[in-house]
């Protein structure tokens, strides 16, 4: 997964667990694509301080994911839903084959929940 997408997903799932200050700086990097200098100037801290904050936030978010695996589960469910969409377009399957495949995928989705 691309690093920026991964950072966005981690933030989407666990961002509320950061402090307001951490959230603002992390959002400026991930969502607003601001430079360290821009963020430092805006927040009255050094570029090194911004860099350290970003690394700390990334580590914190990754630690939550390592313990809770919410992003991982989300991605597996998403992949299974995409498989269901692909099956809906497959005209070469009989009704019975389609039902069997849909049941298999839906079972995997339910196991994730």
List the helices and strands and how they pair.
Layout lengths: L2 H12 L5 H11 L5 H8 L3 H22 L1 H20 L5 H18 L1
Helix pairs in contact: 1-4, 2-4, 3-4, 5-6
Q: How does this structure look, described?
A:
The protein is mostly helical and 113 residues long. The chain has 6 helices and no strands. It has helices spanning 3-14, 20-30, 36-43, 47-68, 70-89, 95-112. The radius of gyration is 20 Å and the shape is elongated. The model has no long low-confidence stretch (mean pLDDT 93).
Count of individual beta strands: 0
Structural class: mainly alpha
Q: Give the % helix.
A: over 70%
**Gyration radius from CA atoms, angstroms:** 20 Å
H/E series? HHHHHH
Summarize, please.
This protein has helices spanning 3-14, 20-30, 36-43, 47-68, 70-89, 95-112. With 113 residues, the chain is mainly alpha-helical.
Notable features of this structure?
113 residues, mainly alpha, 6 helices, elongated
